[in-house]
Amino acid sequence: MKSALHFLVAARQCEIAELEQLQRTSALVERLSQFIHALQKERGLSNVFLYNAGGHGDARHGDARQAQMAECDAIAEAVRESFFGMDTTAGHWGHGARLFSRIAYVLQELDALPALRARIDARDLSPEAATAAFIQLVAGLLAVVFEAADSAPDPGISRLLVAMFNFMQGKEFAGQERATGVAAFGAGISDAQRQQHWLHLIASQERCLQVFAEFSPPLPLALWREACAADATVAVIERLRRVGCTAAPGMPLDGDMAMPWFDSYTLRMDAMQAIEALLATELQQQCARRITEARAALQALQAEPSQAAMPQASGFLADGDGQAHSARLGPQLDRSVIELVQDQSQRLLAMQAELETVRAALGERKTVERAKGLLMARRQLGEGEAHKLLRQTAMNQNRRLIDVAEAVLAMADLLPPAG
Amino acid sequence: MKSALHFLVAARQCEIAELEQLQRTSALVERLSQFIHALQKERGLSNVFLYNAGGHGDARHGDARQAQMAECDAIAEAVRESFFGMDTTAGHWGHGARLFSRIAYVLQELDALPALRARIDARDLSPEAATAAFIQLVAGLLAVVFEAADSAPDPGISRLLVAMFNFMQGKEFAGQERATGVAAFGAGISDAQRQQHWLHLIASQERCLQVFAEFSPPLPLALWREACAADATVAVIERLRRVGCTAAPGMPLDGDMAMPWFDSYTLRMDAMQAIEALLATELQQQCARRITEARAALQALQAEPSQAAMPQASGFLADGDGQAHSARLGPQLDRSVIELVQDQSQRLLAMQAELETVRAALGERKTVERAKGLLMARRQLGEGEAHKLLRQTAMNQNRRLIDVAEAVLAMADLLPPAG
């Protein structure tokens, strides 16, 4: 029975290694959260700059943009350091192939940031193109967080990562809504397509925040509910949403609304960031707690007196219903290791069940990714083109992105194969 | 841009490490396939021995049983060697925690094999209890194979493992059917519950073999179809199936049918094993091929002349539709690395999409496992008890196991929480 115990110990050691990896990933996620927040602010200020916000508050926001770019650069430097501080030895990271590819993508986007800013400085780029460039960088960063959430082997930590990823994704939709509002008021005229996009951003945001609410620990959720409670900021945002989204297409929009919209929305974004920071702290603590627990369990396992015993029989003689009847087996039976093995398989199965339930919450994004991957493979499209095709189809048919993605997967056999 | 390339290289290295792990797992799976086959035969011969087969062929099959036990022991020794030859260093195996727990379970069951045989020798065990004990050991071995199939990171190899796992699972249902037939004819009387179980084994077997047919490469599938084509063996099995499954409960069954049933079915099992061996060879070859490919891709990546270049911009400036417009960016652009990053993300997404599609085929078993895990956690049951509860409910309600499992998961909120 020593042999079974050897593998129980090895299993626990692997579990600890996986938790330690998760702890490293969580530290990275925390830093990415800060970076995304800084980029979202820079994107907003760049939009204000490009739209010139009807001439209002230009200087103030121009200075703010300069300061924001400096802040972004400082955090970008820290993010780069985190990346390059990673031990990229094969085997050190469970999902290395996917994680590192995502990071390669981010680094490439990051290298292009100075060129993007130069073109914004020169007003050589439409606000839409500038916004899209920032969106692409943030999407790359969120994809890194998603990899972490999708590969976490512990249900409790996975719950927290699902809550955090959805909050971050919801916040990004909020950031895009801020930009869209600036664009709408900045343009000074109501536009049907922009209104539709605006409503889509509100709906996507709310769906993410619902998933967050389902998986969040109590404290961040309570704070979020408090932040959502009616106050002056919420009132301004809701009023301007109504104005912007209901004005008949072609009608003028008051350019003076751009700055109050931007400022109120920025307060909201900052409040969201405080909650994200809380989630990140909770994540770190939970990793540390689980590692301590797993180490204690390993020590208990290694201290088992039965490790030295050499039993000659075990408890697998079973009746017709598959139940172990170890009691029949006599005195040479090594009960404790049998129980350890049973406990372990029970624990793993229960953990796996919980983990799959939690991960199911990531299913919507995965379905969209699968549909995208399918289109890319079958129709030789790039990632951007595949996403655009899905989104365009959803808009044309007035259906949700997820529904179109599901339809694509269901119709997979009808799509022509590659080549 | 060197930085992005660094992570592309790291991603490829991780991919190679994962494929090498898969190659080791595949070698293990091949050995387990042989071991399961030997155990299935020993189970069948033990049943014949315990039922005494109406006095027919007892000596011949008794000798065969002794020889089979010796063969089992030899393969068991090789399996143990494979297990103990594994480098259990944390991080060396991607899903170590689960894989090693499964192995601990198998080793514990293996240690109990001598005691099981001693009780069979002494006819101190009902044929049902002996069968159940063998079923439990085989289930433990199949769970190791399932872990491998579920964690394979390459869609092509995953397909093959899904085909192989389902073939092995189907063959195990076939082995159980062989035992059930021996029991039915050996008992000499028709029994309603046994008939129901028999039909259930035929149906489960066919479902597994359908999944195999869907995922198998052409050659093993062609051989399997050939083996299924009407011949003398198939004719005997089908005729005895009909006799055994349609006899009115309480009516006598001809004990003389036990040996023809066993012998014909054993020919079928041996034919299945030949196909399994072919699948195992194909698996090894595909692993080797993919490793060679991945190494070549890594070399090509490392030989990229652009690795030395230090570009100042990249292709992430995008228009409103998220499409990269790198052409605008001027001469300092390092096209090749941008393309490499894009190719990699396209490849990963397509691979992931295919992988999820393939893994969906494992969903049925996973759903049952999830339901089992849920029952274990919420009602403080052991794995065997939870499985029994699901199976009993399915039988009582005349529904499939998978449907009951889905209902359990859907009703999760109604089950009392643990504690």
List the secondary-structure elements of chain A in sequence, H or E. Answer: HHHHHHHHHHHHHH
Share of helix of chain A, binned: over 70%
Number of strands of chain A: 0
Please state the overall shape of chain A, judged from the principal axes of the Cα atoms: globular
Category by helix and strand content of chain A = mainly alpha
What does this structure look like?
- The structure is a homodimer of 419-residue chains.
- With 419 residues, chain A is mainly alpha-helical.
- Chain A has two domains: 2-291, no CATH class; 362-414, Arc Repressor Mutant, subunit A.
- Helix content of chain A is 77%, strand content 0%.
- In chain A, α1 (2-51) packs antiparallel against α2 (58-85), α1 runs antiparallel to α10 (258-302) and α9 (232-246) crosses α10.
- The model of chain A is unreliable at 307-333 (pLDDT under 50).
- Chains A and B meet through α1, α2, α3, α4 and α5 of A and α1, α2, α3, α4 and α5 of B.
Summarize the structure in short.
Two copies of one chain form a homodimer. Chain A has 419 residues and is an all-alpha fold.
